[in-house]
Each structure stands twice: as structure tokens, then as C-alpha cells.
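Q: What would this chain look like folded?
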Amino acid sequence: MTMNCDWSPFPSPGLMGAWPACGPCAATSPATACKIMCSNAYPRPKRRAFTLPELLIVMAIGGITMAALASLSLYTGRSFASLANYVDLDNRSRTALDILSRDIRQVDHVEFFSSNKVVFVDGDGTDLTFEYFPSSRTLVRIKGNDRKVLLTECDELEFRMFQRNTTPGTFDLVPSNDTLEGKAIDISWVCSRKLFGVRFNTESVQTARVIIRKQQATRY
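A: My prediction, written as C-alpha cells:
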């Protein structure tokens, strides 16, 4: 067993009593006494470090965990962005549908009809036009010098016209391209928007049928 002796300085005199000045403490500070404290020294156990295979395994597990967390965060972010995008597109479509329904119900009659453009004669005698432009993906309302974009980012839009009469044995209106017989207008469209550079979120198809209240069965 090895005996180790340490020099411990204490003020002299003090609570620990007076100790004779000796050794290096007395040489450096005359007001300090030194007490020799001897203790048994036991050998410390050796500490075992990580080996290279263990370190590699820990790094691999940490990398897999971080990749899983990053993937989950990305998926959650895209889901919230997709939901917000759908709500925004749906609100825009509802606003456009309200304007279309309000205006078409009040017109006198249809003056021109095609699958992407309809011209009405409004109650004040002026032309009211709704036209879809595939190149810019927009639906525009035109009346006089007033030009208003109702829909943007619209992938498809189609107008259809129907007579007042129904198909025998059903409640479906008879399709017609004759502006003299047009009583109802169908509008259907679908809009989409790119998120994170990818067009992965598409709004469901919007469809509406609007009856022209002032249109008679046949005009002469």
C-alpha cells in the first residue's frame, strides 16, 4: 500500500488550531501553517471508452432517427400547405359562382354561346360576357369597359346550354346550342395550383346550373 502525503494550508492561529510552520508553505507565507495529511491511495479502476464499431452503430441509429423526423416534418408541412391551398381555391370558386349566378339570373336572353364564351343581353340593354381563356387559365367577366377576372389558375372550364323542356321520362333538361331556346346555363371548372414546384394538389370540380329567369321559351 502506498502512502501519499499532501500539504494542506490552514491559517494559524484558527479554528483548526496552531500548526508548526514547515515545508514550502512556511517559505511562501509566514502567516500560514501547514498540516501534513496522509491518506491511503487506492488504485482507480480503468475507464472503458467506446470502440469504433460501437461509435459507428450509434451514428447510424442517430442518422436514421434524424431522417425519420425530417421526413415526418416535411410530410406534415406539405399536408398543411395542401389543406390551406384547397381552402383558398374553394373560397375563390365560391365567390366566382356567386357572381355568375347573380348576373346570369338577371339577364334578358343569350346573344352568343360557345363552350368557353357566353354573351348575354343584360337588363339594361348592354352586353354581358363571360369568357374563359385557356392560355392564361382565367375566367373573365366583361361588361362595357369593366373587365374583372373571376377565376385564376383554372385548368378547365366549360359552358353548356339547355332548353326549358325536359327529356321524356327524365328530369334532365334538353341540351341546346340555339340562343333563342336557351333557358339554363351549366358551368363546370377545375382549378389547381403548384406547391413546392409540383402541381400535386387539385381542387375538386365545381359545377353549377343557373336558370335565366327572364328568358322565355321561344323569342321571335
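Confidence is low (pLDDT under 50) at residues 1-8, 12-40.
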